[in-house]
Amino acid sequence: MLKRKITNSLLEWKNTKNKKCLLLVGARQVGKTFIVREFAKQHYERYIELNFLLNEDHKSIFQGNLTANAIYKQLSLQFYDIEFIPGKTLILLDEIQECGPARTALKSLAEDNRYDVIASSSMLGVAYKQTASIAVGYETTLEMFSLDFEEFLWAKGMLPDRIQTVKEYFDKREQVPEQINNRMLEHMREYMVVGGMPAAVNAFIETSNFAIVHKAQVEILQGYTADIAKYAPTTERIKSRDCYLSIPEQLAKGNKKFQYVLFDKDGKSRKYASSLDWLRDAGLIKMCTNVSTPSFPLVSYKQSNYFKVYGTDIGIIIAMFGFEMKAAIINNTLKGPAKGGIYENLIADILLKKYLPLDYYKSSEGYQEIEFLYTKDESIIPIEVKAGNSASHSLDKFIQQFKPNFAYKFITGNVGQVDAKLTMPLYMAMFL
Length: 432
Fold this sequence. Notes:
Elements: H1 6-14, E1 21-25, H2 32-43, E2 46-51, H3 56-60, H4 68-78, E3 89-94, H5 100-112, E4 116-121, H6 124-130, E5 139-143, H7 149-155, H8 160-172, H9 178-194, H10 198-207, H11 210-231, H12 237-245, H13 247-252, H14 269-281, E6 285-291, E7 302-311, H15 314-321, H16 324-330, H17 338-352, E8 359-362, E9 369-370, E10 372-376, E11 379-385, H18 393-402, E12 407-411, E13 416-418, E14 421-425
Parallel strand pairs: 1-4, 1-5, 2-3, 3-4, 6-8, 11-12, 12-14
Antiparallel strand pairs: 6-7, 8-9, 10-11, 13-14
Helix pairs in contact: 1-2, 9-15, 9-16, 10-11, 11-12, 11-15, 12-14
């Protein structure tokens, strides 16, 4: 079984008195249903699972009176062989986007508080359009991603204390022994091509065969495009698909501001903005927003019209480039303009799975760009990403101009420090 950090968040929710219903959201196939089932086995005496996508009968439970008593009466008729124990029963409302009334009913279920209720959804943004009334104030939203790099290391069998040993080099800003550093960089390159989707990770752990991993990733991509065709508004389907499939090309051009003209010569932001919003709500992409001034709080300086787009799973993004890209990354022979953008998406993958906002800085003159900005103790820390270990003119200029407490330069090399600039191997981004 794949060990997931989100289990700690589920346990924290469970131990909250007078809790709200939990709304677990994320892209399809990140493991939402599986983790809830495993959580129920460990922490509840009774478990009831409704799936509104696979079982039409489950929708009928929410077609009439939406009071808690009425719903639980209907549940008892369909799950007649399960004893409902207050405080010890977990109910999963899976694929809740398929049943708008069930989403509305979360309010009455939260007020009743007899049993714990988790709702999961792959397409939360669509559900807002299908639901007559949202249970505002009665649901806690938790976003779930695919496995992060540390979880990937766990899946490979690396013990937590070994990872902690590597973290000590990060904390002390000391060079990592070359053999350990090279091995960690190898692990990182494997993570880049496998990613964190449970199906892909399991395929890799069981077979060590990248072709089988790629097949699993292609099937996931086919599922994503099928979701776009099924769930996206009619006016957005083709545009959403074009936006999503353009990500490799966006990264290959150096990953500057997202450019619609790469797939539509007459592309304008007003034409595609809602398509990108849909992809974001579906959990397929995250936007990295430009800030005009790298000062706290960054939200005050966001320029929403200027952004980059990253995929939420680095393995899926690599799969979109084609199978040959896997060999180039694993063998560390990748060259060309796509390399920088791919490594940026790797760091974006690590940051977003730590629930850190994605922001970047570009000077008004346009010649100075910092890939990511990281807020720590009300200070803005710049993060520069290098696929190799080339010069960092933009970061040097940023340090000179804004004088941050320190700055990160993530590279494929080892730890080093020159004044405020901390050079770190790329995998150490997981310790931010």
